Amino acid sequence: MTNTISIRANGLTKKFGTFVATDHITFEVYAGEIFGFLGANGAGKTTAMRMLCGLLEPTSGEASVAGYDVYREAESIKKNIGYMSQKFSLYEDLTIQENIRFFGGIYGLSYEGIRQKGNQLLADLGLQSKAKALVGDLPLGWKQKLAFSVAVLHDPKIVFLDEPTGGVDPVTRRQFWDLIYQAAARGVTIFVTTHYMDEAEYCDRVSVMVDGRMDALDSPQNLKEQFGVNSIEEVFYRLARGAQRAD
């Protein structure tokens, strides 16, 4: 993690009619940081991520991603990030190799770049013998690891992961996080939303979203000390109940 700011938000707000999905959230994320966006379903996590990815225009506030403004330069943002949605993001009726070629082309890689990076991806995941297998035939855990590897195929500066381990067993979840650590070690900024409280412990810093508000932001250890508890889950439940930090 460096002092270079990859993501900056100031008073970022999104309203749908009278409903406030994100309420004046302000934060910064640094290059190479694993930044966790923690909250229950409906807390505003996905809405915030979609604004930062250039997929949804904010109602008010300011934000920049990789140095690009979310209002004026959404297309430039999309070229400099990787994105993995909470719903499986690859084409299940295509083979692993076909998905790699397709997304490599979308990301603007050359034919030779797709070939080299695709071969390396298959080798890293141990899927060389499965290259021509349909993605739909893979177990869910392998699908998710493949989707993440494809999301970073073009060496993006920032990767947004929206509930990436939903429905995955604990062992595979831990293996998935190993891929995240490897990407962060290469200097990639990881912005990950999750409602799994234990996954917050894997992040450099965690923000806790409650009803569209960012009610806390710090390292997991500091948050536990501030609230006088032993787990991020307890921090979350204290915030959800409106409890105060420990003296």
TrEMBL record:
An annotated Gene Ontology molecular function: ATP hydrolysis activity
Keyword Nucleotide-binding: yes
SUPFAM superfamilies cross-referenced by the UniProt entry: P-loop containing nucleoside triphosphate hydrolases (SSF52540)
PROSITE patterns membership: ABC_TRANSPORTER_2
Keyword Transport part of the UniProt annotation: no
Keyword annotations from UniProtKB, A to Z: ATP-binding, Nucleotide-binding
Gene3D superfamilies from the UniProt entry: P-loop containing nucleotide triphosphate hydrolases
Matches recorded under CDD domains: ABC_subfamily_A
Annotated ranges, domain ABC transporter: 7-236
InterPro entries in the record: AAA+_ATPase, ABC_transporter-like_ATP-bd, P-loop_NTPase
Protein name: ABC-2 type transport system ATP-binding protein
Organism annotation: Dyadobacter jejuensis
